[in-house]
Amino acid sequence: MDTTITPSTDNNAPAYVEKTDPIERQQRQRDTAHIQGWGADADPANRPAYPMERTPPRLDNVHWDAPEQQQSRVKVYHSVERPGITPVFGTSTPPAGLSGKLRDVAFKFSENDIRHWLILMAADRVNVGEGLLSDLAHGHVPNVFEEMGLRAEWRYNRAGFVKKAIVASALVGTAIYLMRRRSE
Questions:
Q1: Of 106, 109, 102, 154, whose CA–CA distance to 129 is shortest?
Q2: Domain housing 10
Q3: CA distance 110 to 88
Q4: Whole-prediction pTM value?
């Protein structure tokens, strides 16, 4: 069965779970005969996955109803629309520094709030800067030309490389001009 969970803004409210049989949903659909190609896979005999499909899906040799909850040793973010973290999650890059603080702020907002996503994008940019500073602090000078893929850009997309170089040069030149003009 298809299961859709519609999150609630109230943390104590039970999650709404819709369980709809796909065949029943197909029968409830409006007249779509005028749409070319609509329902091309409706005939079970004409569906490549039909013998394997089941409602509810078949889970052979499963010894659990839900996966065991992974233990958290680092901070793991989850949406405010969800009651808790997923059973399994990644911990390869735990939040740290200013970018981690920005992520703390971002996850106080709902996923449908643009502030959530803008703050996360800013946190990613800050994380790049933190990585550069970390490299320099450990005595490694990053090869920005290589890491940005500029050699491949030069080899396979020379016109694009030249255009980007001209735009970047114009921006840097304009910034230098404005800073010099301001100081005079």
A1: 102
A2: 1-61
A3: 22
A4: 0.51
